[in-house]
């Protein structure tokens, strides 16, 4: 037996209840891990509400880190005692869990399990956005919405290390100050300013090479107005609701723009891709070019309160659930 958050009906944070659940021995190709920490991400909210489809009942969460305690049949690349982390395996909201080793990476000794749990999904998201979806080069100008969020704080530092001019948006004085301390050259208060007009002003009319947008409905289509001719709109989330009725003609009207809707899972689908992405993240963190901020922790039993705070935009940086 173990304890886990089980969603038995879609809805608000109140559906997140902690239960005793059966935990079978790990199957072929699986290991059991005792989790040290679990990462909280907006994708967890999407599954809880039904925006993303899951089969009820389910244990939410995709990101965590812990120690291997038992091996299933055929496992040879991991050993009992290994410190491991993952970002793409459903069922994270649990004290212990079984997990297919295809999702796991070993955590370097210099990185704590708590830091690993806080950065795997968010950090590998920043990696694929900045280095793969639209490779950021020195001299480019980028706009990153939700600059003080978990992905935003990592991306700001990383983009600055890549030589870009980094513009962000945030919704409070405290979040603006936090983002400015994490690589951003300029941060726009979207609650007080027209961010598209401000981007035009900050760039002397030249606009941005790329916009990274995880907000969705509230920032569309103005994000397109921030782009240079033939610039790239990267929509990788929809915290404010999904973008609806995207008229492709807008891309032509606003400068032969490009648009894409990537997900991390398509960038780490193979062992080689996962290892390359994770190692790139580990390297930039160990170099101290990117530091990971764990700004909130909640007991696993209070996952509902954590979701409420996340949706109310009361959180910044990374948030952990502690079993």
UniProtKB/TrEMBL annotation:
Q: What is this protein called?
A: NADPH:quinone reductase-like Zn-dependent oxidoreductase
Do you know which SMART domains this protein is assigned to?
A: PKS_ER
Spell out the InterPro entries in the cross-references.
ADH-like_C, ADH-like_N, ER, GroES-like_sf, NAD(P)-bd_dom_sf, QOR-like, Quin_OxRdtase/zeta-crystal_CS
- GO CC terms of this entry: cytosol
Domain of life the protein comes from: Bacteria
Q: Which UniProt keywords apply?
A: NADP, Oxidoreductase
For this UniProt entry, the molecular function terms from Gene Ontology, in alphabetical order, are: mRNA 3'-UTR AU-rich region binding; NADPH binding; quinone reductase (NADPH) activity; zinc ion binding
Ranges for domain Enoyl reductase (ER): 11-321
């Amino acid at each position: 037996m173990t304890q886990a958050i089980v969603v038995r009906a879609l809805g608000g944070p109140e559906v997140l209840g902690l239960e005793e659940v059966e935990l079978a021995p790990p199957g072929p190709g699986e290991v059991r891990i005792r989790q040290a920490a679990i990462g909280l991400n907006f994708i967890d909210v999407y599954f809880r509400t039904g925006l993303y489809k899951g089969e009820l009942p389910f244990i939410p969460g995709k990101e965590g880190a812990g120690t291997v305690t038992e091996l299933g049949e055929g496992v040879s690349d991991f050993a009992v005692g290994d410190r491991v982390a993952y970002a793409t395996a459903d069922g994270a909201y649990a004290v212990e869990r079984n997990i297919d080793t295809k999702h796991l990476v070993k955590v370097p000794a210099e990185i704590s399990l708590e830091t690993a749990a806080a950065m795997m999904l968010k950090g590998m998201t920043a990696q694929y956005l900045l280095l793969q979806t639209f490779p950021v080069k020195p001299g480019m100008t980028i706009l990153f919405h939700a600059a003080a969020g978990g992905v935003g704080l990592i991306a700001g530092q990383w983009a600055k290390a890549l030589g870009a001019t980094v513009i962000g948006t945030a919704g409070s004085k405290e979040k603006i100050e936090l983002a400015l301390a994490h690589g951003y050259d300029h941060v726009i208060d979207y609650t007080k300013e027209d961010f598209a007009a401000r981007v035009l002003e900050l760039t002397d009319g030249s606009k941005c090479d790329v916009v990274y947008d995880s907000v969705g409905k509230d920032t569309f289509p103005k994000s397109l107005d921030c782009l240079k001719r033939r610039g790239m709109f990267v929509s990788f989330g929809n915290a404010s609701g999904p973008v609806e009725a995207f008229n492709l003609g807008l891309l032509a009207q606003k400068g032969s723009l490009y648009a894409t809707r990537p997900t991390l899972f398509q960038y780490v689908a193979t062992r080689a891709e996962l290892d390359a992405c994770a190692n790139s993240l580990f390297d930039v963190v160990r170099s101290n070019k990117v530091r990971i901020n764990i700004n909130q922790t909640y007991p696993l039993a209070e996952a509902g309160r954590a979701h409420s705070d996340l949706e109310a935009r009361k959180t910044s940086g990374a948030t952990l659930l502690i079993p």
